[in-house]
């Protein structure tokens, strides 16, 4: 008997001539927490589908719990103890907790009639396995995201799971919920269940997993003990590139372009003063509720400050609204690039020029095609947006490139201050570094940038000065070159 | 054990409350609402819309929408009627129902093929087939009002009992077709609640991808729904013809909007996944009382349309607002990052 629960070797899989997996291998030992990492499109999901029997591999061997398969159906996979917790949990929002827990079992047993007594018994058993207490009669749509995930996990355990595959399980969870999830993963491990934890988030991989496997472009790049892995190597494996971890320094001290003097907004922040110079990247961090988002939204004219003043290039201004902020050269890229920033089905061209159309149109508002083309070409080149044809819809681009389109739109407006809220939430590591490099080059050309972020390594890596907010005030101003993540965390929470 | 918090979120209690209020108002004003003959008249008017609404509810719960049922009912009924007249049929009425159900099922199968197998959008498909079936009836069958065979005529005259309003000397007969409605309700209730097929209808309406992963035969369930609803529509067409004692090719057409409105009013979620027979029947009852009984308190018939419209907007608005409320809560918990 081998000590592997799963061993796949040299798996190949193509879709319509495109090779998604070019011969990958993965070994998971019994009772271990194994992390499968890689950027979007590296073949992680394809492999999960092969291991769970949804896709059939073109080539290669699968050995599950000591049994070799050449072809494997979803039922085979379940019978050998493979369970997948999908990213969307695959629950029925409109059905009750007990039905969600029991329906899969009932379908497996090929029952035609429903017995609520049996369903209740199955559901209670499922919840008891994790010691979870939920109202069996409640509809799942009324539960929190974390509880829905618990239901998916409990449901998986009903099938005598030996290998639980979790596909990016932390995407929609809060930090506290992630902690609770990790406790559950440890508990499953204690019961001898192996976990394949699929993620591209560094911190999680280091925290939870014992061994890791990293894919890139459908190939294995690394596998080993997580304890022997460091951050830099992880990023290199994921992206195949080296990135400098040096923090950014403006070449020269620029003039002050934006200043806040004793600015206050009731319930959000109080008596804030700071200056922003051309060419610098100012990081603002702090916990949710520290007032950081309200502060930048006030600078962008979304909120009206109760007292204090804002100065643009040394002159006191009154920002009456978003339009007036843009006229003063202030731009704001909101946190959720997908829902707030872009017209996804519209072309890249239209998305870039939309906020500048009045200046790209002639008599009677007729658009100047040539001028638009030139403008778009310029930004696609400058920001190296990966596209052959800017007339394609924005949704055909990767997350990182979509973010670049949002930037291009703002830059087209001749800004002097650009504020970004969580600029790299949801983009993979490679694009993240690209965005950081882009911000640096923009700052070098004299733009003043404010980056708000929860991602402390990001704040340290891409800013030239850090403002830590706590409880509506500035707790401290730090130099990223001489501070650490831990210190930033302590200041934000106020334990230091 | 009744969970009050959960009850407060359902729409049935509100629709029921609205019906009680409306009934009391009409009773106080006219003294004629709670009379035997008025109640029997209401029940009589409910039969056809209620039968339609059962099918419409099943389709909406599964995440679709069907506007073709009046056309299916009309064509199934009319074709059956013409065939039976041509052969001078004088046997049992059950054959007429069976034939109408068969025609309905065949037309439902067209919807099922397009929606279930070819995965086309339900609204567009049923708009198309609705027009198609109506066209066949009016073109190929050159439909016009036509009598019904003697057995159906006799069936139409059957009554379970007669209610008399002694005050005004009016009488109303309870038609035997109400038994078909009760039978359909029982059948669909058992189907939806106690079979995996029925739970599959809800599961698909909740999340089709999840249903597929769980092991539901999604295509099979959809094919079943549209075939079943087609057959029900065929039967409903025949119920209508027998109650009217003639085959009128067009007077069911246009009913889809009121029926769907009644279903939604009864708490069925337009986007699928939620809906009960109780709610649906309450929705139909409210609509019928509005259109039949407002005249008892002296509101002219053309104004009843205004009232009906207002009730639909308020009722569906409240339902949507409730659904939106919980949706917003989820959205905010989902972005907790």
Strand order of the largest sheet of chain A: 6-7-8-3-9-10
The arrangement of helices and strands of chain B along the chain is HHHHHHHEEHHHHHHH
Mean pLDDT of chain B: 87
N/C terminus separation of chain B:
37 Å
Into how many domains do the coordinates of chain A divide?
2
Note the beta-strand portion of chain B.
Answer: under 5%
The low-confidence parts of chain A are none
Structural class designation of chain B: mainly alpha
Which sheet architecture does the biggest sheet of chain B show? 2 strands, antiparallel
Task: Lay out the secondary structure.
The complex is a heterodimer of chains A (496) and B (337).
Chain A: E1 4-15, E2 18-29, E3 33-37, H1 44-51, E4 59-64, E5 67-69, H2 74-79, E6 82-85, H3 97-108, H4 116-130, H5 145-157, E7 163-167, H6 175-190, E8 194-198, H7 202-208, E9 211-216, E10 219-225, H8 231-239, E11 256-265, E12 269-277, E13 281-285, H9 292-299, E14 307-312, E15 315-317, H10 322-327, E16 330-333, H11 337-341, H12 348-353, H13 369-382, H14 399-411, E17 417-421, H15 429-444, E18 448-452, H16 456-462, E19 465-470, E20 473-478, H17 485-493
Chain B: H1 4-9, H2 12-30, H3 36-61, H4 69-86, H5 93-117, H6 122-138, H7 150-157, E1 159-165, E2 170-175, H8 178-194, H9 196-206, H10 208-214, H11 218-244, H12 255-265, H13 277-293, H14 301-334
Antiparallel strand pairs in B: 1-2
Helix pairs in contact in B: 2-13, 3-8, 3-9, 3-11, 3-12, 3-13, 4-5, 4-6, 4-11, 5-6, 5-11, 7-11, 8-9, 9-10, 9-11, 12-13, 12-14, 13-14
